[in-house]
Design a protein that fits this description.
It comes from Gillisia mitskevichiae. The longest helix is centred in the middle third of the chain and has 16 residues. The chain contains eleven helices and 13 strands. The chain is α/β, with parallel strands linked by helices. The strands form three sheets. Strands 5-6-7-3-8-9 form a six-stranded mixed beta sheet, with helices on both faces. Strands 11-12-10-13 form a four-stranded antiparallel beta sheet, covered by helices on one side. Strands 2-1-4 form a three-stranded antiparallel beta sheet, with helices on one face. The structure holds adenosine-5'-triphosphate (ATP). The site of adenosine-5'-triphosphate (ATP) has 12 residues, from strand 2 and helix 1.
């Protein structure tokens, strides 16, 4: 699969603060990537560096096969990283015509892109009459004018009402289905789950996880157990090949599964070993719990 962006140990320091710390990942054509992290985790700084608006401290990145300069490569990139800025008294069409002129793109692209974002019927309305969601959609149309290989969006649904959020997510899916690669930054796990195929989770500028969104939730779950002999219980569980990490908190033992196993199988295994349980529950973390776990771990 064709590579769109390669980031290698990219670092940005502001004085003593390391906003992005040795970050590496690659973006392949046709996927929808989310950079997911809490506020201040370095998402915007990362986007800023690859878009040449923030100077990196160290590390490197290159666009496509690396043969073009970043300046040249960015002509094939569409990005919205700040609030959309259009002329309030000009119509949607007139604003986009201006963008076409600046980008050197033919004006016949305007209607096509307005159609994608559902604004074709409002093409002659003045920008100042648009809702926040419509303004954001116009910004997306504007970023698409040069038929970019990749569309980059920083928190695309921030500040929008539920309907506006839904519309933007639908548009992102539509653009992705047309073959455009997408990279978006978000602090919302739910958004990444709904829209993205791949995710890079960062916290304090450090990458915690990168991979497919569906594989992120591929854990086998865990058991919670109680017994009047937790020491013996732990010893027996440690011998079981399907059980991974075991933790004991007061009278509750938690055993993480390395491979699938049902509660009934575990129960009969323990019974055969002479272990009687007073409590047994199988649980699986939601993606949200895993995300919170991941992002909290490095806080310690
Ligand atoms: N120009 C700057 N000067 C100093 N510190 C900065 C600057 N820009 C960003 N930072 C700091 O770098 C860290 C990362 O900020 P960044 O905006 O990249 O995070 P973010 O994940 O995009 O967060 P948010 O979602 O809140 O925008 C933060 O601690 C921020 O305060």
């Amino acid at each position: 699969m064709e590579t769109i962006l390669t980031i290698n140990q990219l670092t940005k320091r502001y004085g003593s603060l390391t906003a992005v710390n040795n970050l590496s990942f690659t973006i392949k054509k046709g996927n929808v990537y989310g950079i997911l992290g809490p506020n201040g985790s370095g998402k915007s700084t990362t986007l800023g560096m690859v878009l040449n608006v923030v100077n990196k401290t160290s590390g490197d990145f290159h666009w496509f096969d690396g043969s073009d300069s970043t300046h040249e490569a960015l002509k094939k990139v569409g990005a919205i990283i700040e609030h959309p800025n259009f002329y309030p008294y000009m119509t949607a069409s007139q604003n986009l015509a201006l963008v076409c002129k600046i980008k050197g793109v033919p004006k016949n692209k305007i209607d096509e892109k307005l159609e994608i974002v559902g604004l074709l019927d409002r093409k002659d309305s003045k920008f100042k009459t648009f809702s926040l969601g419509m303004k954001q959609r116009l910004a997306i149309a504007s970023a698409l004018l040069n038929d970019p290989e990749i569309l980059i969006l920083d928190e695309p649904t921030n500040g929008l009402d539920p309907q506006g959020i839904h519309q933007i997510r639908e548009i992102i899916r539509k653009i992705a289905s047309m073959g455009t690669t997408i990279l978006l930054a978000s602090h919302l796990l739910d958004e990444v789950e709904k829209v993205c195929t791949h995710v890079v989770i960062i916290r304090k500028g450090i990458k915690l996880y990168s991979g497919r969104v569906d594989e992120m939730n591929a854990s086998n779950g865990f058991f919670e157990l109680k017994s009047n002999d937790l020491v013996k219980l732990q010893q027996i569980l440690e011998e079981h090949p399907s059980i991974g990490k075991i933790t004991v908190n007061e009278d509750l033992l938690t055993a993480i599964l390395e491979e699938p196993m049902g509660a009934d199988d575990l129960n009969s295994y323990l019974y055969q070993k002479g272990m009687i349980l007073s409590y047994l529950v199988k649980r699986k973390e939601s993606l949200e719990e895993q995300f919170l776990q991941l992002t909290n771990e490095t806080a310690k």
